[in-house]
Amino acid sequence: MKRRLIILLLSTCIFSCNEEQTPDITTGLTANIALDGSAEDLVSSATGTIHDATAAPNRLGEIGKSMQFNAVDSSYIDFGDLDGVSFTGNQFTISCWLLAIDTARRMAVLSKRTPAGPFEYSFDNHFYLSFFTLDNWVSSGAGTVYGIDPLKASASIEAGTWQHIAFVADGEFLKAYVDGVLQYGVDARISGMSFSNTTAPFIIGAGGAFGVNHFFNGCIDDIRIYNKALNAEAIRFLADS
Hints:
Strands 1, 3, 4, 6, 11, 12, 13, 14 and 18 form a nine-stranded antiparallel beta sheet that branches. Strands 2-5-15-7-8-9-10 form a seven-stranded antiparallel beta sheet, with no helix packed on it. A two-stranded antiparallel sheet has the order 16-17. The chain has helices spanning 2-21, 232-240, and strands at residues 29-33, 49-51, 54-56, 66-69, 76-78, 91-100, 108-113, 119-128, 131-136, 154-156, 162-170, 173-178, 181-182, 187-188, 202-204, 206-207, 214-215, 218-226. The chain is mostly beta strands. The relative contact order is 0.24. It contains two helices and 18 strands. It has one domain: Jelly Rolls, CATH 2.60.120.200.
């Protein structure tokens, strides 16, 4: 009887410990776009309009479970003004899986802006071809919210390989992670600067700097956007899943 009780207590402890080790990746989730051959936001049920992007295998080799974008064809997905991807609280996490074909051109993963404004942000490599940054502005484009150009929080691109990339802002600092590992370089929030909820469309596969659109070349999968800063443990969990 005593032995059974010890085994039961150990089992309960192991189960509880495993539960504690599973991070919370649902609280604060405002957009979840799986890109499994379609373009639906599982949070809002909004569906994006697909322009020349096609279904492709994902990082696990599952057929039709990611979307491929061809920069030559100017392919992209347009969600219109998707409300859940604006960060009026200045805290957010943007998480996604990417397979960039090369680093020979400027390209954008996603954005919420138009070339002429209003502006919010653009996840692209227009500063340095071998690094993605999250360029971000106040709605008028008159200044940035986090960092000063060229931005410091950057995610190095390894062409031809699936990578998990996340940008995390906690109200004070913007950081970048690649495959769950925090990268060198941090952008501080500029005093008095804040994001707005503009009417700019949320676009996957296009974005860029002032006055231009750069189109992505490769595959994108499993975009998750939060209105809070996920901790390092949660980022590692997403990168390992």
